[in-house]
Structure formats: structure tokens, C-alpha cells
Amino acid sequence: MSENGYTFSPATSEFFAQRADEAMEQLWADGIWNEQKLRDLENAHYRTPYEKHIT
């Protein structure tokens, strides 16, 4: 059992990995995903900036 309490068979994992790969290939073919997007993600910071509160 994994940390979250769910287990997946290798066939299930492979199925979803294949689906994700196919979806990414389609995004690439449609021009939505490209080398520039990959470069942009290299230095992207998507975490919420939190202010430090001094008490």
C-alpha cells in the first residue's frame, strides 16, 4: 500500500502514463506545448508568496 492508501497495478499505471503521453503529444502537435513553454517553466515560480509576519 502507498502513503495515500491506494495501490495501482502496473497495468493501471501504464494505462494512465500512456494517456498522459498521448495528451502531451497532442498538445505539442497543436502548438500549445513547445520548446519555449519548457524554457519558460525552467525558472517559473508558482508558489504563493507568503508575507512573513513579525510578532
Question: Can you walk through the features of this model?
Answer:
It is a single chain. The longest helix is centred in the middle third of the chain and has 20 residues, at 10-29. This protein has helices at 10-29, 35-42. The protein is an all-alpha fold and 55 residues long. The chain is flat, with a radius of gyration of 18 Å. The mean pLDDT is 87. 51% of the residues lie in helices and 0% in strands.
List its salient traits.
mainly alpha; flat; 0% strand; 55 residues
Structural class by SSE content? mainly alpha
Extended strand count? 0
Beta-strand residue percentage = under 5%
Amino- and carboxy-terminal Cα gap? 43 Å
Please, what is the average pLDDT?
Answer: 87
User: How many individual helices?
Assistant: 2
Give start-end ranges of low-pLDDT stretches: none
> What is the gyration radius calculated from CA atoms?
18 Å
Shape: flat
